[in-house]
Write a structure and sequence with these properties.
Layout: H1 5-11, E1 18-22, H2 28-41, E2 49-53, H3 56-69, E3 78-81, H4 82-97, E4 102-103, H5 111-123, H6 129-144, H7 159-172, E5 175-176, H8 178-191, H9 193-202, E6 205-208, H10 216-226, E7 232-236, H11 251-254, H12 256-259, E8 264-268, H13 276-286, E9 308-312, H14 315-328, E10 334-338, H15 344-353, E11 359-361, H16 371-384, H17 389-395, H18 405-413, H19 431-448, H20 452-461, H21 465-476, H22 480-494, H23 500-516, E12 524-528, H24 529-532, E13 537-542, H25 557-571, E14 574-583, E15 585-586, E16 589-590, H26 595-605
Helix pairs in contact: 1-2, 4-8, 5-7, 8-9, 8-10, 13-25, 14-15, 16-17, 16-19, 20-22
Length: 607
């Protein structure tokens, strides 16, 4: 590979701390590899060079690439994730000091089950999978940010108590999770000089890839083992810092000069990946962020197609547009990017019915366990057998009818072919209540005679289940928009099915696909924006660009800047063609385009 002047200058850096600010497509991995080769040429023992990667997959990839550049030599440099090194320190400490630590992810009782159980114990109600994920992310955020949750305001009910109970549980059972690895290894090295000196004396040069994704806890660990030589070579792009929910924060990169007074900066500002159209548009877009390093991003590539802003009628119109475009470009790598895994459900449904081969990057959708699916199935099953008090007990308070626990107990004592009919003779029942119950009886009769598509719509909007979702979203701090989106996808899937059995079989199939398609080697990739970072494709489609999705409507200036970085990451995955798509109707209602779409349209007019 022929290196540019910028790259050659960076790899010549030998001693002392350095921050290499590398824009998308500037050859970050190549820089790390060629610098290792140069250090070896200068007489440095390869085993004394340690490179940290963001993920295990990245570590495996860079190791393979180095072996091709430096074949037939068993004396190789070290490539680790920060977690891997920290875990090895913890295990070594355990052997030396007789203190046992077990990784919770390897236990029969998972982190998810433990926290869900603690939540139920404290709040007296079960937690949804979506809310559980949010709770776990929040715990991870505080740990990785080195912030004491006792001093913070958190919207999650009883969060501080949940946090403390979870920590106590792990301590009592000698368990640690992935977030604990960093903090525990750091604490061990601070108090155990033998181990600290052993680690420090093992390596002369440290390299950190994807430095913008390093949390404050991780950076404190690296800072500790790099001292006093501080031969720390950090490759990063503050404009691609998109993991704030894990504790990553570009501020520490911006303030790195205060940590290392002799810090040297190198700028890799040439994008080798994308066309001039994509580079110019994306760089003007990210330049609107104020809390960043100023860069002059450029490319030697030609102008090709302009960035395409596509306005369509509905979500299905998005899928159709993408499908037809994919067929026109069969031999090119193409990616469909979206904000969250849930958004993939409609895409998977459409493309799979079209028999298109594709792979899914880190999806693992859990459809069948979602409480909405369970509720809808129970309500439909009950319409087919109205004697099922066991089913009715699960959802009676989630639909219109205003049935109370007293009414339910009365029904349990007066069972029959239709458990609702005896309720009409409940002592002292007001006339309006009898009318409600009569309407409910009629609703179940109507429901039974409909197809599955009609049934789901009827449950949501005629029987009042959508009102329950709105209320529970407020009560349990769920996102109603996410619940609404899930329902929209269910309705879309049901539109091609006849009955509950075929619908359920379809859901099982889609869930199976989302968990297995990641192993499929295809030119067509479906991915969240977060999971697409570090990857590149000839053509990129970013979908669902509507108000409230990206950027989300919550947060302050700092949050908005992170949202802008996320969108920037998505745009810069594209080599030649970039399609930004927004539907006028989203989740069944008219919506406004993303404010980012409006910004890009304004930039286009200003040219």
């Amino acid at each position: 590979m022929e290196l540019s002047k910028e790259q050659k200058l960076a790899i010549k850096h030998k001693n002392g701390p350095a921050l290499i600010l590398a824009v998308p497509g500037s050859g970050k991995t190549s820089i790390l590899l060629h610098r290792i080769l140069r250090l070896i040429d200068q007489g440095v023992d390869p085993k004394r060079i340690l490179t940290f990667t963001f993920s295990k997959a990245a570590s495996t990839d860079i190791k393979k690439r180095f072996s091709k550049l430096y074949p037939h030599n068993k004396n190789l440099p070290k490539f680790f994730t920060i977690h891997a090194l920290c875990f090895s320190i913890i295990r070594h400490y355990s052997k030396l000091r007789g203190k046992e630590y077990r990784l919770i992810e390897g236990e029969k009782v998972s982190k998810y089950k433990i926290i869900a159980s603690i939540y139920y114990e404290l709040n007296k109600k079960p937690i949804s999978e979506q809310y559980l994920e949010e709770l776990i992310n929040k715990i991870s955020y505080y740990k990785n940010s080195l912030i004491d949750p006792e001093k913070e305001k958190v919207k999650i009910t009883n969060f501080r108590q949940i946090y403390r109970k979870y920590e106590d549980y792990k301590k009592e059972n000698n368990l640690i999770d992935f977030d604990d690895m960093i903090i525990l290894a750091y604490e061990i090295l601070k108090k155990d000089n033998y181990l600290l000196n052993k680690i420090k004396s093992s390596f002369d040069y440290l390299q950190l890839d994807e430095g913008q994704d390093t949390s404050r806890a991780q950076f404190q660990f690296i800072k500790l083992i790099a001292a006093p030589k501080n031969n720390l070579f950090i490759v990063a792009d503050d404009d691609q810092s998109i993991y704030a929910f894990r504790g990553a924060d570009p501020d520490y990169l911006l303030n790195l000069k205060n940590v290392y007074k002799n810090l040297t900066y190198y700028y890799l500002q040439n994008n080798f990946r994308s066309t001039k159209n994509i580079v110019n548009t994306s760089s003007k877009f990210i330049d609107k962020n104020s809390n960043r390093f100023s860069k002059k991003i450029s490319t030697l590539n030609d102008y090709l197609e302009p960035v395409n802003i596509i306005k369509l009628g509905s979500s299905e119109d998005q899928y159709k547009f993408i499908y037809e475009n994919i067929l026109k470009n069969k031999n090119l790598s193409q990616a469909i990017l979206y904000r969250n895994n849930l958004s993939s459900l409609g895409v998977i449904e459409y493309l799979e019915r079209k028999n298109l081969d594709f792979s899914i990057n880190s999806s693992k959708l859990k459809i069948l366990n979602h409480f909405i699916v369970k509720d809808i199935l129970s309500i439909i099953e009950f319409s087919n057998d109205t004697s099922r008090i066991d089913l009715f007990s699960n959802f009676y308070y989630k639909i219109h009818g205003y049935i109370s626990k007293k009414h339910l107990n009365f029904m349990k004592k007066n069972l029959g072919e239709n458990i609702l009919i005896p309720l009409l003779s409940y002592p002292g029942l007001p006339t309006y209540y009898k009318e409600n119950i009569s309407m409910l009886i009629k609703d179940f009769k109507n429901l039974k005679g409909k197809n599955i598509f009609q049934q789901i719509n009827y449950i949501l909007y005629d029987m009042g289940y959508d009102d329950y979702l709105k209320d529970s979203a407020k009560k349990f701090n769920y996102s109603y928009e996410n619940l609404k989106e899930f329902c929209h996808h269910l309705i879309y899937i049901a539109s091609s099915e006849k009955d509950i059995d075929s619908f359920l079989a379809r859901l099982k199939h889609l869930e199976y696909m989302s968990n297995t398609k990641s192993y499929n080697d295809s030119l067509i990739k479906l991915s969240t924006i977060h999971s697409s970072k570090g990857l590149e494709y000839d053509i990129v489609y970013i979908i669902d660009l509507v108000d409230g999705v990206i950027p989300s409507n919550k947060g302050d200036t700092k949050d908005l800047e992170e949202e802008r970085r996320l969108f920037y990451v998505a745009m810069t995955r594209a080599k030649t063609n970039l399609y930004l798509i927004y539907p006028k109707i989203y989740n069944g209602r008219y919506v406004l385009p993303s404010s980012f779409i409006n910004e890009l349209a304004a930039l286009s007019k200003a040219k």
